[in-house]
Amino acid sequence: MKFISKYRRHKFATPVLLLIALSALGFTFSAATAAPNQSAAAASARSTLIEEGKEIFLKGCSSCHGLNGEGGAVAPSLIGVGAASVDFQVATGRMPMQDMSQQAMRKAPVYNDEEVAALAAYVASLAPGPRAYTNEEIEWERDGNTAEGGELFRNNCAMCHNFAGQGGALTQGKYAPTVMGVKARHIYEAMITGPQAMPVFNDKIITPEEKLSIIKWIKSAEAEPALGGASLGRVGPVTEGLLVWTLGLGLLIGIAVWLTAKAR
């Protein structure tokens, strides 16, 4: 302090102090206005994304779901379904579809990732709902537990999707699709939105950590080799029994016919 105080009467002391004060004021003002500017830029970008999504919606979705997403005679309302439902349905190619009376099947998507994000943003703007996720956010490899996931899958999912996740038949001509080859974010989004006949597994029923464990088990089942030979689709005893009856009985009938012909 003594070193500084001896220069307080120097002729340049006042200009230097003034320069320091002005610089500090400028830096403080810049820091204070930076956050609002960033927020305004983010809000502007989101508004633009919503407008793009609305344009896509009016062209490709409004004929079934209504001009404002209110639903219609052949399609449900989209108000309150959230971005997660849109990302799951559109990014997996289930929507749009021509015949709404049929069950939506997974196929090549019509829209690219940017268009899906815009559609999701627009539908999310209609009313609050579950948000969409990215594959990077679903850190199942780090946070999931395979053994726990297998138990949860068997208790909550296997009755429809088959104990090996290969899918299965439901009532009234519907079916539960296979979960093999599905992106992690879409599995997560399906659990929180409950598409079609699937129930909604909210965080009170299955926690986010347990959802990651289910995904980890599914991914481990995908990579599991068929050590026993032909897996026959891993759809259970019906296929295996059909194969045994068809080949077994066919072989027995063939032997009986051969022996009868030989006896003559």
TrEMBL record:
Superkingdom of this protein's organism: Bacteria
- Name the membrane topology term: Multi-pass membrane protein
Which Gene Ontology molecular-function terms are recorded? heme binding; iron ion binding; quinol-cytochrome-c reductase activity
Q: Does the keyword Nucleotide-binding apply?
A: no
Q: Which reaction does it catalyse?
A: a quinol + 2 Fe(III)-[cytochrome c](out) = a quinone + 2 Fe(II)-[cytochrome c](out) + 2 H(+)(out)
Indicate the quaternary assembly: The cytochrome bc1 complex is composed of a cytochrome b (QcrB), the Rieske iron-sulfur protein (QcrA) and a diheme cytochrome c (QcrC) subunit.
What is this protein's record name? Cytochrome bc1 complex cytochrome c subunit
Give the source species: Candidatus Nanopelagicus hibericus
